[in-house]
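hiii so um. not sure if this is the right channel but i have a protein structure encoded as tokens and i wanna go backwards to a sequence. like what aa goes where. can anyone help
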């Protein structure tokens, strides 16, 4: 039986919201998505519904050269490959398919975003932040348990996963440099995970 993988994509855009989060939390990356395939043909997350309106968010299917990303010539990011069991992969896939089929039922967790600034819990079954959604998929699939409220999960939190960084740099160039990773990045990923809990 072949190995199964999920892909966590961390990015930083030049939007006002991204810059605000970066300023408040001093985080290198401000957005998280999850993908079922290494080519990142489709990524899934929560974000703005319309490119020019940051105040209306929902579940989104993302592509590197579409939507908000289309306006970025440089899109700093990291792609993390997480090895999972067949059962975990199928569970995660089924959950994502549920969100796709019922996207109208889910909205962005603005309350969770504000509460997260002061490290306060604020979760609802039908509302998610980007990192909160990715973590929800991983947690419900039995892949990760950070033991914190899901709205407090930040993109940086995913560095604590046992994973392999398969790409770091401008995501606009990713399709031309697939599988271009170094042992140094793998070591950095594991060290970040260790220091996250110190």
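sure thing!! here u go:
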């Amino acid at each position: 039986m072949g190995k199964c993988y999920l892909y966590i994509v961390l990015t930083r855009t030049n939007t006002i919201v991204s810059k605000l989060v970066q300023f408040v939390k001093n985080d290198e990356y401000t957005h998280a998505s999850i993908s079922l395939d290494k080519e990142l043909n489709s990524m899934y997350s929560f974000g703005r519904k319309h490119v020019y309106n940051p105040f209306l968010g929902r579940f989104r299917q993302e592509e590197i050269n579409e939507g908000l990303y289309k306006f970025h010539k440089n899109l700093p990011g990291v792609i993390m490959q997480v090895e999972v069991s067949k059962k975990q992969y199928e569970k995660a896939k089924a959950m994502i398919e549920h969100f796709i089929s019922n996207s109208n039922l889910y909205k962005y967790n603005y309350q969770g975003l504000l509460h997260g600034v002061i490290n306060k819990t604020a979760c609802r079954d039908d509302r998610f932040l980007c990192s909160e959604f990715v973590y929800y998929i991983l947690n419900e699939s039995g892949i990760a348990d950070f033991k914190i409220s899901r709205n407090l999960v930040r993109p940086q939190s995913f560095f604590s996963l046992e994973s392999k960084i398969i790409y770091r740099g401008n995501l606009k160039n990713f399709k031309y440099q697939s599988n271009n990773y170094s042992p140094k990045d793998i070591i950095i990923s594991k060290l970040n995970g260790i220091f996250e809990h110190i």
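oh and The beta strands are 4-11, 31-35, 43-50, 53-62, 76-84, 107-108, 127-128, 164-170.
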